């Protein structure tokens, strides 16, 4: 909130002296300059109406002290209005929420009657009546409710401003109102009472009621109780009406709140514009400093990254000999890994080796009946291929060509052997004809099209285990 010193200092900084008198146009001109915007003329007129002018040269002039104090009072009044409007808005929102909850629980076809009343105040309490506290008890049938006065209240005219709701039982026609007082260290004492006739009230029509209090023996007192009361025959319909009223009140309070804040901002702007500009400049300066620090930090980070990249690049630019050593070490490690990985030979290769062995043995017997030195050479070439790791492409080609030639030679020889078998030559071995089918089987399944020369396998034949492929180590018994 503004104070008088701040307002006078603002005028003085813009050329208006405190001890001088100024016309309305001069003061408004300075307010326009100070606020960097035209000061609202309607608000200005209201402010000047609260000041006491001085006539000078047939024109009305005003003292800055008087204007400043009026502005201070106006800002305080608007601040209180804003605070009260916010409190009322909050209270109405709470009442609306309660009303909505009750509406959801209320039947449209309820037959119960309700009494809604607002106890406003009790007036004209005698000054000779000394008490420290008081309250009002409202009784309808067997239902009692207590109303306590506001926190700060006048003991001769205590305000209550509390709302109450009663469901009216059958055959009950009046509401009992009792005013109790108490002094220090005493129990509450009934001082006055009154009766509210329910028949006097109309459905959903708020009625202002003022009842005179009677003392406990029935004598009339000067004090009165003031309240607003109404009967509700259909609570559901009543709550719907209350909701509409709450919404209307909230709408009005919202508009009032916006108007009060706007007026307060207009009055305070000329005297806060300079301070707000200063705060804005400080904020802008702080933002620039932060951005510079951030930019410096980013540059330093980029520099560190560049230096790290340079170091890594220098490490990569090592001599050629060192690269060769690293590559050779990697290749040797890779070869060691390959050598350590010696899986069992596939089943087809296991069977092939067994067939090669049988083929070699059979060829030895066949050679006793025919000059099949080519088969012997091919058999030894195949055995050398496996047992001696001779998987070079040239060796495989030579053995393969020899194998094909041996197959063709064996086919031609078997045809000739068949002719010899049925001839009169007694030198032909009789067991040779029985081996024809076996030889055909062996010749078909002993040809291997290709073997990967980069792999090693472990073969097991007749409990003899040996490795085949690159860098074969040794043959061992299983």
From TrEMBL:
Annotated InterPro entries: C2_dom
Molecular-function GO term, any one: calcium ion binding
Transmembrane segments: 348-367, 394-413
Gene Ontology CC: membrane
Pfam families: C2
Sections of the chain in a coiled coil: 75-102
Organism encoding this protein: Paramecium sonneborni
Xref: PANTHER family: C2 DOMAIN-CONTAINING PROTEIN, MULTIPLE C2 AND TRANSMEMBRANE DOMAIN-CONTAINING PROTEIN
Taxonomic lineage of the native organism: Eukaryota, Sar, Alveolata, Ciliophora, Intramacronucleata
Entry keywords, A to Z: Calcium, Coiled coil, Membrane, Metal-binding, Transmembrane, Transmembrane helix
Domain C2: 94-213
Protein name (database record): C2 domain-containing protein
